[in-house]
Amino acid sequence: MKYAFSNEQMRRADAAAIAAGTPSIELMERAGQALARAVSDAMRRKGAAEAIFVCGGGNNGGDGFAAARILRDEGEDVSVLCLAQNFSPDCAAMRARYQGEVLARIPRRRYAVAVDCLFGTGLSRPIEGENGALVAFLASCDYVVACDLPSGLKECGIAPEVCVRADETVSMGQLKCALLMADGADCAGRVQVADIGIPATERGAEVWEAADVAKYFPPRRSNTHKGSYGSACILAGDAYSGAAFLAAGACLKSGVGYTKLCVSEKLFPAAIGKLPAVVLKEFRAIDGDVLAADCIAAGMGAGVSERLYVYIAELLGAYTGTLVLDADALNTIAAYGIEVLNKKSCRVILTPHPKEFARLAGKPVGEVLSDAVNEAKEFALRRQVTLILKNNRSVVTDGERVAVNPTGCAALAKGGSGDVLSGLLAGTCARGVAPFEAACVASWLLGRAGEIAAQKMGEYAPDPTDIIGFLPEAMRSL
Description:
Layout: E1 2-5, H1 7-19, H2 24-46, E2 50-55, H3 59-73, E3 77-82, H4 89-98, E4 102-103, E5 113-117, H5 129-140, E6 143-147, E7 168-172, E8 175-176, H6 184-187, E9 190-194, E10 205-207, H7 210-214, E11 231-235, H8 242-252, E12 258-263, H9 268-271, E13 279-282, H10 288-291, E14 295-298, H11 306-318, E15 322-325, H12 328-336, E16 347-350, H13 354-361, H14 365-369, H15 372-383, E17 386-389, E18 395-397, E19 402-404, H16 417-430, H17 435-457, H18 464-476
Parallel strand pairs: 1-8, 2-3, 2-5, 3-4, 5-6, 6-7, 7-9, 11-12, 11-14, 12-13, 14-15, 15-16, 16-17
Antiparallel strand pairs: 1-10, 17-18, 18-19
C-alpha cells in the first residue's frame, strides 16, 4: 500500500526532518539529484540533446538550479530560465552554485525537454503576468517534467486556467494527493516519488494497490456452498429501471453467494428472466426476507419521494447488517432530512457523486471539491458512516481512515457506472468484508474494469454492461 499526503502535511514533515538535524539545503540537494536523474532519463527517452529548466525564486526553483548544476557537471547541455527578482535563501544559494548563464528572457524556440521548477506546492495565488508567459512557454515544449507538483495545480487537484500540464512529475519525499485527484491525474502525467529523506510524520491517505485488494479474494476451499459467501439484496426503484439490473448484475460478479433483487410490482414483469441467477422478488414492504440479507443496497433508480424516505428510515432502524445508500436514496435524504442518519442500528455506506454530496452537506459543489478529502472525512465522522465521494479519483473514508482510489478512466463517465459500483459493493460487503475495506475494494475493481474496457474498446464505447463484463478480468488481474 502507498500513501498520499496533503501539501500541508508535507510542509510539516519537511519541517520535522530539518528539526531532526537534516539542513534544508541538504534536502534541496537531494531533490536536485532526484530531479536530475529523472530529466536525464527523459532526455534519453526523447533523444534530446538538451533540456531547459524554468525556475522560480522559491525552493522549487532551488531544486531546479541544483538539478541543472548536477547535469551540467556531468556534461549535459542544459539551460536555466529564471525571471524571478526575489529568492528564498536556499534558492539563492543553489543559484550561486550553478555558475552557468541564467536566461532572463523567454527563448523564441521550442525545446524537446523542459523542466517546471516554478512554484511546486508553494503557490497560493493565480499565475499571471510573466509567470503566465513562462507556463505558456512550457506548454510549447515537447516533453515537460514537473518538480514536485505541476505549477498552478491546487492542493485539491483542481487546475486553474493557467496551469502546467506535465508529461511526468517527480514528487519529492512522498506522494501528494493533488497528483491523484481531480485534474491532477491529467496535469501530472506519469508520477514517480523520490525518497529524499523526509519521513512522514502523520497518517496519509491510503492508496490501495492490487496486492491490497487481492487479500479480499483468497483461494476458495472446495468444501463450500452458496451459503458460505453471504447474501446481498438490491432494493432498486422503477423510475430508472436499468439501475436495478446494473446493480444486480454487478453484484452477481462480486463472489457473493446469493443476489436478491427486489423490484416494484410495475417492474416485476420486465425483470422475469432478465438475470436468471438472481433471486427475484416483488417488493411491497420491508420484511424478514429483506432484513435477513447480509448487505442491502438501496436507492438506485428509485426517484425522490417521501415514501422512499419512510422506507429508508425503517431500514436504518430495523436492519442490523450493512446498508449501502446510493443515488435517489441520497437525494431523498437530502430533500426530507439528513437527521434520519442519526437513528440507525446498521452499518451505513453512502456513495454520492459531488453533486449528491453537496446536497447532503448543504454546501456548494465548488466548496466540496476545493477540499474533497477533508469535507468527506468530516461528514463521515459527524454522521458515523462510511463514505465514497465518487469522482475520477474517489475518496473513501469512515471519518478516521481515508483512501484515494487510484484506478479508473473516462470510460466510466457514463450514467449507470454508479449502479455497478453499488452492486459490486453490496456483494463485497455481504461476503463479510468490513465497510471501509469493501468500499476500497469495490472502487478499485470498478476502476480497473473501466481501464481494461478502455484498453480493449477505447474510452468512448464501453457502457456499464461492458464494465460488468470486465469485472472478472479485473479480479483475475489480482
